[in-house]
């Protein structure tokens, strides 16, 4: 036969797996020989090498070219062999069966479309048989050709074949790996590899080769929408080209894409190529370059997604992993995770279960040891775009690093509710924009500047002047005070203690939203109670700044621009703070402006420069 | 040719494009990962068909210009046509080309068989280059199907401080989540062509119109299938004078690609010794 590479079907990558000594390398060596794929002289060369060592010839020598492997007669590292057949090119990936070398087995498997699983007919399923099947499941290999090998050792007994086949069927079904054939073989003698062996007339299925050639093309379960993990930005002349490989979907010039986790949206202006092809569309699998309209903010680590179906944003997710570290994995362990084009710090939040390889049950356990498969949930300090392996496998695969060592590989099973929102029953609909995005757009941070102090201490005057100065400076600023909130938001509230507490609570919440929207919210309220001001601070977080406008009651009463003190003295304003109500002086304000010492102008100047600093106003704009 | 035959050929060509597109997309993604994650980075160029195809892929990945130095480990023993090809391409592709002159043969391990000594000189030259320029990554155009030891390589393959390959303790390499985190005194070999076969490279060279050294094409019934130093590389018998004829020849041959490279076959473990010592 000719060994012309035939291009009628795409290349197929098959990883050979199974327990140590069940015959993987022998099977591959023999397959190569029987399909005419060994170079001329190879068998003679290997036979000569065997004679020099005083060994008998082994087919596995065709693969185990590594000196030490020949000495130990065991496969240490994964290797690849090209098997050309008249209908399809098969790349055979030989993976070690020894438990010690599982990291190399998983390396080989992670590149495969299907598996060739070997089981010794005499010895039956070994521990590594079970473990390898579980690794196939984890890695995402969904089809397997099974060879029940060394049938000569059991006298080609059909009952033995049937018993092992039943056991394997159960194991594979549990792992979600579809068996394409169970072939009884004797690899050393080439029985049922390429041609049907007369020794087993009761077998009416395909040969190993025929079963491999029938593996259906990879059809990964795919989610909706476009995905591309940004590898980086290439600058060419004045162009800024965002590069990456399309994981899923299609992108067309003019499409709007969201850059996650930030969520800013940009329109595709061009698809760059060299030599220039004026491409207008690109789809899954292509390595592309995208140019965007307007100022570009996209960078390495971002996931570009179509606006309609972006990934979940969360700081918690559940994953399944193969633990390769020497020390056990425990709850609380901090590791670095690489996925997509990001590297992030993660902590093991829960260790849900460790798979019991020996049985089909999902096991328990509070630590994962070397070569265990475990389900864990991770917590992360930052919000991440998370796609589950069922939707976008290429973006759900990760490795874990401890220092410079890879200690695990795994896949993200699902996004969990973000930790910060877990306290309430509100299911958050995450914004597509981050505070950082809004900051870049506005040129400054959104903050709350909370002015507290007695009536007539100068809050409103300072607030209005500050607002004017900031807006003139190009910032976005807005004053919230009694006049504008009581006109609508708080029109149902009076001036009782309860109503005033509620008034401050509402203003605190609104000011937090203003700040989140990117505005400098200036709240000018007496806000007499520490608890109320504390609640407002809680609503905003780090961007809350309490400014104490200090002036004693006598000085304020002397100013009395609105005549409130006079009315209060006349008994017309019950609970008026400063006369009959209590004002709780701030214990630890970010800034104190004593208006009995500073002029209004000096107070405004001091506060203005403070706000420029805390809101990080971009002076270049 | 009948209409049916034409259709079948067209369908085959379309699928072939898919395979080459897939290989190209993957190699470009690897080159970009190397560039964005491993700094400083350099690429080796032997002017052979593989590393020239790799240079072309780098031009595609970075839109016309190769953003890192391109280095020849020069033994002064390349064939004259190879040096001429280098001069022409470094000029027309505007490469940041550099020659690294390898130490003389007298400085290498005398227990190595004679034909392996050029490789040992290159290994020593590469070690000096990495140490002097403090490169963290070296992009190399080797393929898994060339040689059994290269079949065991990783795409991102760490090297020890002295450049040695610790092949018994290779880190796992899962999917395309590549491992670039290495101690400060190490460097990475980056292998974007690992999954390509010899025939893939020729088909891609033809499709993309990539220039090649004319020595690959038969003259007087002989051609070079693999280019090495002039004293240790022999041409093979062949009448393949075009890329199509080379592809047709490769589709039917059972001779290994490096049959003309005497260094591979002098002793059983010659190549393993070279590679673990730091050879490409």
Task: Describe, in short, the structure shown.
With 621 residues, chain A is α/β, with parallel strands linked by helices. Chain A contains 16 helices and 25 strands.
Domain module count of chain B:
1
Tally of domains of chain A: 4
Separation, N- and C-terminal Cα atoms of chain B = 46 Å
Q: What's the architecture of chain B, going by CATH?
A: 3-Layer(aba) Sandwich
Percent strand of chain B: 5-15%
Parts with pLDDT < 50 across at least 5 consecutive residues of chain B: 1-9
Question: In the CATH hierarchy, what is the architecture of the largest domain in chain A at level 2?
Answer: 3-Layer(aba) Sandwich
Largest sheet report of chain A: 6 strands, mixed
How much of the sequence lies in strands of chain A comes to: 25-35%
| Total beta strands of chain B | 8
Can you tell me the CATH topology of chain B?
Rossmann fold
CATH class type of chain B:
Alpha Beta
Q: What is the ordering of alpha helices and beta strands of chain B?
A: HEHEHEHEEEHEEHH
Can you describe this structure?
The complex is a heterodimer of chains A (621) and B (280). Chain A is an alpha/beta fold and 621 residues long. Chain A has four domains: 12-216, P-loop containing nucleotide triphosphate hydrolases (Rossmann fold, 3-Layer(aba) Sandwich); 220-306, Translation factors (Elongation Factor Tu (Ef-tu), domain 3), CATH 2.40.30.10; 314-423, Elongation Factor Tu (Ef-tu), domain 3; 435-614, Rossmann fold. In chain B, helix 1 crosses helix 2. In chain B, strands 3-2-1-4-6-5 form a six-stranded mixed beta sheet, with helices on both faces. Chain B has a two-stranded antiparallel sheet with strand order 7-8. Chain B starts with a helix and ends with a helix. Mean pLDDT of chain B is 88; it is low at 1-9. Chain B has 280 residues and is α/β, with parallel strands linked by helices. Chain B has one domain (21-280): 3-Layer(aba) Sandwich (Rossmann fold), CATH 3.40.50. At the A-B interface, strand 2, helix 4, strand 7, strand 8 and strand 19 of A face helix 1 and helix 2 of B.
């Amino acid at each position: 036969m000719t060994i012309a590479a035939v291009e009628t079907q795409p290349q197929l990558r098959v990883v050979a797996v199974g327990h140590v000594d069940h015959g993987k390398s022998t099977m591959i060596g023999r397959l190569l020989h029987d399909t005419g794929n060994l170079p001329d002289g190879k068998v003679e060369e290997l036979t000569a090498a065997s004679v020099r060592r005083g060994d008998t010839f082994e087919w596995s020598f065709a693969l185990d070219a590594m000196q030490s492997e020949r000495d130990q007669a065991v496969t240490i590292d994964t290797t690849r062999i090209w098997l050309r057949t008249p209908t399809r090119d098969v790349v055979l990936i030989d993976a070690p069966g020894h438990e010690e070398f599982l990291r190399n087995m998983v390396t080989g498997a992670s590149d495969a479309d299907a598996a060739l699983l070997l089981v010794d007919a005499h010895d039956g399923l070994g521990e590594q048989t079970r473990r390898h099947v579980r690794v196939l499941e984890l890695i995402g290999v969904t089809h397997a050709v099974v060879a029940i090998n060394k049938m000569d050792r059991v006298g080609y007994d059909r009952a033995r074949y049937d018993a092992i086949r039943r056991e394997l069927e159960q194991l594979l079904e549990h792992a979600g790996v579809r068996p394409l054939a169970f072939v009884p073989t004797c690899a050393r003698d080439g029985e049922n590899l390429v041609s049907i062996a007369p020794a087993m007339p009761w077998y009416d299925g395909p040969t190993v080769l025929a079963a491999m050639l029938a593996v259906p093309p990879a059809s990964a379960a795919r989610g909706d929408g476009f995905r591309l993990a940004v590898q980086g930005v290439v600058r060419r002349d004045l162009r800024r080209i965002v590069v990456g490989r399309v994981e899923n979907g299609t992108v067309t010039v003019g499409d709007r894409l969201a850059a996650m986790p930030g969520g800013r949206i940009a329109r595709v202006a061009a698809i760059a190529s060299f030599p220039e092809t004026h491409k207008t569309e690109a789809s899954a699998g292509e390595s592309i370059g995208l140019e965007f309209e307007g100022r570009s903010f996209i960078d390495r680590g971002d996931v570009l997604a179509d606006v309609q179906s972006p990934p979940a944003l969360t700081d918690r997710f559940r994953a399944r992993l193969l633990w390769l570290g020497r020390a056990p994995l425990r709850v609380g362990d901090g590791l670095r995770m690489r996925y997509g084009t990001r590297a992030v710090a993660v902590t093991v939040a829960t260790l849900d279960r460790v798979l019991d390889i020996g049985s089909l049950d999902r096991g328990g356990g509070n630590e994962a040891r070397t070569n265990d498969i475990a389900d864990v949930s991770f917590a992360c300090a930052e919000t991440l775009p998370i796609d589950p392996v069922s939707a976008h496998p290429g973006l759900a695969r990760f490795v874990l690093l401890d220092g410079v060592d890879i200690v695990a590989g795994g896949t993200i099973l699902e996004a969990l509710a973000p930790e910060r929102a877990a306290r309430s029953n509100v299911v958050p609909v995450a914004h597509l924009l981050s505070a950082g995005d809004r900051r870049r757009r506005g040129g400054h941070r959104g903050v709350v500047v909370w002015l507290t102090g007695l009536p007539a201490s100068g809050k409103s005057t300072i607030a209005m002047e500050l607002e004017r100065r900031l807006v003139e400076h190009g910032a976005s600023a807005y004053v919230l005070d009694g006049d504008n909130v009581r006109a609508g938001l708080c029109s149902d509230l009076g001036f009782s203690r309860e109503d005033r507490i509620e008034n401050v609570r509402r203003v605190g919440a609104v000011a937090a939203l203003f700040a989140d929207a990117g505005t400098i919210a200036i709240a000018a309220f007496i806000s007499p109670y520490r608890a109320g001001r504390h609640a407002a601070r809680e609503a905003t977080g780090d961007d809350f700044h309490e400014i104490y406008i200090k002036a004693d009651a006598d000085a304020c009463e002397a100013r009395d621009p609105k005549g409130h003190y006079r009315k209060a003295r006349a008994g017309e304003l019950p609970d008026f703070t400063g006369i009959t109500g209590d004002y709780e002086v701030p214990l630890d304000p970010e800034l104190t402006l004593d208006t009995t010492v500073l002029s209004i102008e000096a107070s405004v100047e001091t506060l203005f420069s403070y706000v420029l600093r805390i809101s990080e106003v971009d002076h270049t704009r | 040719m009948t209409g049916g035959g034409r259709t079948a050929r067209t369908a085959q060509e379309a699928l072939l494009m898919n395979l080459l597109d897939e290989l190209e997309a993957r190699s470009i993604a690897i080159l970009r990962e190397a560039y964005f994650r491993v700094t400083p980075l350099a690429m080796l160029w032997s002017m052979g068909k593989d590393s020239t195809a790799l240079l072309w892929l780098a031009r595609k990945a970075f839109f016309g210009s190769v953003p890192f130095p391109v280095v020849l480990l020069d033994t002064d023993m390349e064939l004259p046509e190879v040096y001429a090809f280098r001069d022409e391409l470094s000029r027309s592709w505007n490469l940041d080309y550099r020659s690294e002159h390898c130490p003389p043969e007298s400085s290498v391990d005398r227990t190595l068989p004679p034909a392996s000594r050029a490789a040992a000189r290159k290994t020593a030259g590469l070690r000096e280059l990495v140490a002097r320029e403090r490169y963290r990554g070296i992009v190399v155009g080797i393929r898994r199907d060339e040689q059994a030891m290269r079949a065991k390589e990783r795409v991102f393959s760490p090297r020890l401080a002295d450049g040695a390959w610790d092949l018994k303790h290779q880190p796992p390499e899962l999917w395309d989540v590549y491992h670039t985190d290495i101690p400060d005194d190490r460097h990475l070999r980056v292998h974007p062509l690992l999954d390509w076969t010899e025939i893939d490279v020729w088909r891609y060279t033809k499709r993309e119109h990539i220039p090649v050294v004319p020595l690959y094409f038969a003259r007087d019934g002989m051609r070079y299938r693999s280019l090495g130093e002039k004293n240790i590389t022999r041409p093979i018998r062949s009448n393949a004078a075009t890329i199509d004829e080379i592809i047709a020849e490769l589709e039917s041959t059972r001779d290994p690609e490096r049959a003309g490279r005497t260094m591979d076959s002098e002793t059983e473990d010659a190549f393993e010794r070279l590679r673990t010592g730091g050879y490409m």
